[in-house]
Every structure is written in C-alpha cells, then in structure tokens.
Amino acid sequence: MSLEVTVVQACRRSGRGGSRTAVVTDTELRDSTRRAIPAAVGASHAVFISTQDPAAVRLRFFTSTGELPACGHGTVAALAVLAQDAGEYEGMLQTAAGLLPGHAIGREGEYSAAFTPGPIELHAAAAEVADPILSALGVGTETVACHVASVGRPRLLVELADQQTLTNLAPDMPRLRAATDRLGLLGCYAYVSPSADGRTVARMFAPSIGVPEDIANANSTACLAAYLSTRGHSRLQVDMGDSLGHPATMITTVTATSGPPIVEVGGQVAICVSAERVEEPIDSGR
To answer: CB of 120 within 8 A of CB of 226?
Structure first.
C-alpha cells in the first residue's frame, strides 16, 4: 500500500531553508510505519493529523526512534497543511502534551503559522544535571546559565556567552546521548545571550530521539522565550539550522498574565510537495 505524504519546510528564513517535515492526514497506520516515514522522505520528523473530531484536530509526532508527546515545528507544519484548502485555519490541536490553540494563514503554498504550546515548566539546573551535558558539549567557563525547561518533555537550556562558542560546538554524541538518557532529558538547546531587540541564535542536539542536531526546534524556543521574558524580552527572533545548511527562524511573543506568561511560537512555512507517494513498509510490528 502506498501513502500520500505532504512534505513541508517549516520555520523558513527569508524564503529559504526550514526543517523538512512529513505530514500525513487521516490514515490508520501501524506505529512501525509512522517511524519509517520521516526517513522515506528525507525528514527528521513526521506529524500525523486526524480530523475525525471537529472540536479538536488530533496530532501525533514521530521520529525514526518512536513517538514524541510534542513537536513544535511539526505543529507549525500541520497548521500550514490544515490551512491549505481555505487559505487560513484557526482551532484547537489535541496532542499528547495537551490541547493547544493554533492558527495559520497564507496562499499558494506559503503560510505563516503559530501556536501556543501550553504551560512551560522552568527551573535552574542543578550541577549534577548540567555538568555531564556541558562536558559532552565540550564547554565550561563559556557557559552563562543552565535551566531545565519542559513543555511535553524536559530539556536543558544552555546559555553561551558568544556566537563563536555556539558555532564551534562539536558534541560527543555518544556521551551526550548517554547523559540525556540517564537524566530523562529530550536533549540540549544551546543559545547565545540575545541582543536588546531579542535576536539570537541557537542549536538543538537530541541524539536520544534519533536527531543528532535539529534544524528547527520551536518548543525549545518557546521554553527559551518563557525564560527570557523574566529578563525583559517579550519578543524573540531565533535563528537555527545554519550549521546544517538549512537556515531556519522562529518568532516568539510572550504575553504577561496574572499567572504564567502565555507564549506563542511560529514561523514561515512552505508546502513544497503536496502529494508524495511513499510505499508502506511490510512490518507486522506495532
């Protein structure tokens, strides 16, 4: 059996780059097939959309290693596909991490999409958490701050003093994977202290989920926005993917409330292949 897969470039920068993401709509599949789809179309992630419940579209996210409770650039990609027919979409998205409001608008394959990832948990990282990750990254005194942030799954945010240090990162991937697995972390999101107008750059390493380096990681960027809002930044523009040759940009806005701040994250999206056929692998496993 062949499947129809929409291929999306999520979180592009100035009309180029972005994270290649597979999107499949309303198809019952084995989980083994869902895991195989990203590699089949040259993507790191795939998102599966179910529109059976009109009150909330259901999203599931997979890499080659298994299912994720949340995927930010996958959510952005799904929103663009949902807007494809009418030119816009606004609604609730049901994910394993919770119910998320999202919206998208555009035409002729080019869209702007954003969503609110839900409550973000944030705390300073203890030395026993930060030190093995920093050691695997190969940094020490260049580190400004480390925080554990969670939206779906926890990850370590590592603030570095300058862009050159970020560019030069060459993590020991086996050590990083061992450390993140042991600590129960999704991965490590390294970034540079932002400019006064909220511009910064970041790199995301997640070998535990089969993604040594992510082109774009919108949920980690949302976590960063929540943290930096405590330092006076209500809007960020975060560049990623340059080290991989796929420039990506995410925009965040933070709205203060009487409770936790509300973070919205999104970017520019292009639907580059609207109907790629992929053969479903023959596999009896789930």
So the answer is: yes
